[in-house]
Specification:
By secondary structure, this protein is mainly α. It has seven helices and three strands, in the order αααββαααβα. A three-stranded antiparallel β-sheet has the order 1-2-3, with helices on one face.
């Protein structure tokens, strides 16, 4: 009975502050409350990055594509199954420090099809992908569909000796209406 009286007289604060587990839980609760109310505030106007203007549609060689890796140029492009996409919006993933940064400014087809993120296995010359098995080709098609849905298509990846397509403003308008 004396113990019950001691707990009630010491109050809840004594119980919280004398137990390491309770202190940890209290700290976690306070941190989560802080994140809910203050942690997700938008950046200040001065710090916010302005979106880059939409890239005019054109075709790219592998050499052209290398310039858009997020280090030399703020825009990030990558090719998937012969199509070049502007993935600048996803720079947290495809930028130099991102988990898929190895694909920035390159043809990512083989890496995506084989789920291989090792930079050493990425080819620096045209890859016809003829050695991919059916499952890898299906995976690549799924990646292409995902990129088509999520990112802007900016042109095609040229094979060696292939001539670039001349795009007109009218064709770009057609693309916008088709999407």
């Amino acid at each position: 009975m004396a113990e019950a009286e001691e707990v009630s007289s010491g109050g809840i604060f004594q119980e919280i502050f004398t137990s390491p587990l309770n202190l940890t839980l209290l700290t976690l609760c306070l941190f989560l409350l802080y994140k809910i109310f203050r942690g997700d505030k938008a950046q200040e106007l001065g710090e916010a990055e302005k979106p880059l203007p939409k890239l005019k549609k054109r075709d790219f060689t592998l050499e052209d594509l290398k310039l858009y890796d997020g280090t030399q140029n703020p825009r990030i492009l990558m090719a998937v199954n012969g199509k070049v996409f502007d993935v600048t919006r996803g720079k947290k993933f495809y930028g130099p420090e991102g988990p898929y940064g190895v694909f920035a400014g390159r043809d990512a087809s083989r890496g995506l099809a084989t789920f291989n993120l090792d930079k050493d296995t990425q080819k620096d010359e045209h890859d016809d992908l003829s050695d991919l098995n059916a499952m890898q080709q299906e995976s690549l098609s799924e990646w292409e569909a995902q990129f088509t849905f999520k990112y802007d298509y900016v042109g095609k990846l040229l094979k060696p000796g292939e001539e670039p397509t001349e795009y007109t403003d009218d064709e770009e308008g057609k693309d916008k209406r088709a999407n």
